[in-house]
Design brief:
By secondary structure, the chain is mainly alpha-helical. It is built from 8 helices and 2 strands. Belongs to the 4-toluene sulfonate uptake permease (TSUP) (TC 2.A.102) family.
Length: 206
């Protein structure tokens, strides 16, 4: 076991490296950080998941504030999806407590591996088009007012968009929250499915 100061410095360096790799690959830093904590440093996965979840919240909050400042974030859609995500994360954290109380930790490893593979697959299959094409409004668009617009500095124009299949987005975001609470990661693959694929939102908005 490393001395406390050296261990702390190593944690900082590995966390920074995971954040960089996570941003470059689109998998998220926590997805890379948890295996390093458990396999390399020997930290129990329950502690590794908790620590990575805190870093995920901090990173996401910082990134989200920048998008809000640029008026890209749709707060109405985000708040609606947040309800499902929060509910799922609470149930996920309760599931973790049950798993560890019954010494079923292997389930966590199996689920984590499956989620990691799904994250890689979704990133590879992600749409090449930044803006959805040919999206027709449905009943959820009208009832929940899933309309929005933002100024895209790259395209140098104002982009108008609509969201569809609100109910499907809520279901997927619930499971995204559940996975986050269970594993302590961002579960970006499911969020991509919910907002990019199910609700047909632009990548920057999602």
């Amino acid at each position: 076991m490393l001395p406390t100061i050296e261990f702390f410095i190593l944690i900082i360096l590995l966390s920074a490296l995971s954040g960089i790799l996570g941003a470059l690959t689109g998998l998220g830093g926590a997805t890379i950080l948890v295996p390093i904590y458990t396999l390399y440093l020997g930290i129990p996965i329950v502690y590794a998941s908790g620590a990575s979840l805190i870093s995920t919240i901090a990173t996401s909050s910082g990134t989200a504030s920048a998008y809000i400042k640029d008026r890209i974030t749709n707060l109405k859609i985000g708040t609606g999806l947040l309800t499902a995500t929060t509910t799922g994360s609470i149930i996920g954290s309760l599931t973790v407590a049950f798993i560890y109380s019954h010494h079923l930790q292997y389930i966590i490893y199996i689920v984590f591996g499956a989620v990691l593979l799904s994250q890689i697959y979704v990133q590879l299959q992600r749409s090449k088009f930044e803006l959805p094409r040919g999206v027709e409004p449905d009943w959820t668009t009208r009832i929940f007012q899933l309309y929005g617009k933002y100024y895209d500095m790259v395209l140098d124009r104002e982009v108008e968009y609509i969201g569809v299949k609100w109910w499907l987005g809520e279901i997927i975001m619930f499971f995204a929250g559940y996975i986050s609470g269970l594993l302590g990661i961002g579960s970006g693959a499911l969020k991509v499915l919910a907002m990019d694929w199910a609700m047909n939102l632009p990548i920057k908005v999602s």
